[in-house]
Design brief:
Strand 6 (147-156) and strand 7 (159-167) form a beta hairpin. The chain has four helices and seven strands, in the order H-H-E-H-E-E-H-E-E-E-E. By secondary structure, it is of the alpha+beta class. Strands 1-2-3-7-6-5-4 form a seven-stranded antiparallel β-sheet. The protein has helices at residues 9-22, 28-33, 46-53, 85-95; strands at residues 39-40, 62-70, 76-84, 102-104, 132-138, 147-156, 159-167. The protein folds into two domains: 1-34, no CATH class; 39-167, no CATH class.
């Protein structure tokens, strides 16, 4: 840094900081107006997220929940609903997984915090549940969708909760 006449070293550092941060083209007020990334989109409908995932939600599905998170490079997509357990296999067959889904009897012991947590929808993470069947459905997928995973957990009374997590 070139010495500036009549300025102390501290004043020179402060002047350099003001010049450098002033070149960013915005003010602190402008930065506060921009949405933070990642952020959750509000008012996202389950059918809308299903379309982004290329997944048709069964007509008899209940307790439908969805979320879409704007990310730095990719968006996180969440979709969950309950379905009669007798209908789950037909739904999974339509997803056409590339590999057979696996069954996990116990919750995963390692703690992994998903980038797009189902907790945003008021649900437990499928990784924290016992008796879960799941796996990747596609990677890479068609169109804007980069990956899609499914998990199914029985919730009692002949119903199961389907969890779908995608990256698009």
């Amino acid at each position: 840094m070139l010495p500036m006449r009549g300025m102390s070293a501290g004043a020179q550092v402060l002047a350099a900081f003001v010049v450098l941060t002033g070149c960013s083209g915005g003010t602190a007020r402008d930065a506060d107006a921009r949405p933070q990334v990642p952020n959750w989109k509000s008012g996202v409908a389950p059918n809308e997220v299903g379309d982004l995932m290329h997944v048709q939600i069964p007509a008899d599905a209940t307790d439908r929940r969805a979320g879409c998170q704007d990310g730095f490079q990719d968006d996180g997509l969440l979709l969950s609903f309950t379905l009669r357990t007798a209908r789950v296999d037909a739904f999974l067959d339509r997803l056409a997984p590339e590999q057979p889904l696996t069954h996990r009897a116990e919750p995963l012991t390692h703690s992994v915090k998903p980038m797009t947590p189902f907790a945003h929808l008021g649900l437990k993470e499928p990784e924290t549940l016992a008796d879960v069947r799941g796996g990747p459905v596609c990677a890479p997928c068609a169109g804007e969708l980069n990956s899609l995973g499914v998990a199914v957990h029985p919730v009692g009374a002949g119903s199961s909760r389907v969890y779908l997590r995608g990256v698009g």
